[in-house]
Amino acid sequence: MSHEHFDNVSIYPESSTGSFANLTSNQLPPAERDPNPPNAFVYHARKVYHPLGFKKGYNFTLFVIFAGIMFLFCLIRLPYLNVTGSASWSFFSNILPSDRYWYSNFTIYRVGITMHLAAIIPAGALMVFQFIPMIRYKLLIVHRVNGYIIITLVTIANIGAIMISRRAFGGGVEVQAAVATMAIMITTSIALAYYNIKKIQIEQHRKWMLRAMFYLGIIITMRVILFFSARAVNKSGEYWTAVDCQELQFAYQNITVFQQRYPSCLGSDGKSVSGFVAVHGIADGLVEQVSVGWKLSFGMAAWLSIILHVAGVEIYLALTPRETERLRQVSYQRQLERGYANAGRGGLTADKLGDAIKWTPNQG
Question: Residue 218: what pLDDT?
């Protein structure tokens, strides 16, 4: 996410390679040749990732893995934009009957899930393009406009997620807390990334955008954990959960069968009443019994995924201090050109807000 000070200027400029930038190794003067030329694989790989703006192979590899998974996940979820459809690939056809009950009968939840899906799926796909260096270098206006679109979509998606958190996968307090935590983490990261680029603090912008990207990916890891955990819970046969009688009745087309299976959901007059009934989680049981594993596992999967992604992105940032320092130097030069009184510390830096040693620019 860029801003007006960077018209036609890369916000992540690489150091210049001089007048020999477009020459192959054999064409360079002897003094400029690489003493350890790349092997055939690396040579051909560079022909793939250099045009995209990547200078290091490991950066491209990580991009392909993480951004590729994010983009693929969003493509697979595109059919979910048909929220209430009856097609086998629609959202309603691939959720728990209990969730479908709330989304079908209550406007606030139907609006919430529609907002969330319609915003988060395109936001996740568009986020990938923010990390392609070539776009930042040569198509800065695209980078900027795309950034504003992502901010808007993520905000809408977070509002929708909070609206449905009371009912999604049982809507327990652990689920509501996890959804709120993810919304806060993502919103805060994007807000700080936006603020820092406004202040031309590029290395902080990079850090917070990477965090936002990793946090958006929590849902993918969560789905993987949930898939295996739900099956393990049901297979064990040791878990029960309380289910709303109205949710159960909604799942049954034959009211007589429902009344026979769950007599505790009936009043003295034989009519359905509001209340809850204990349902046993069984792997090969009825749909409401299979749903038990998914409901009980969702909160756990969410919190475990949050921890994994927070740890993962912080480890990556800790392992790339040279890139942080390079961008800090770029920030210093840009801020100096704009007349900042404390060039290098225009944004939210540790030496400005905390007790870190004051950063000094490299004058070499």
Answer: 98
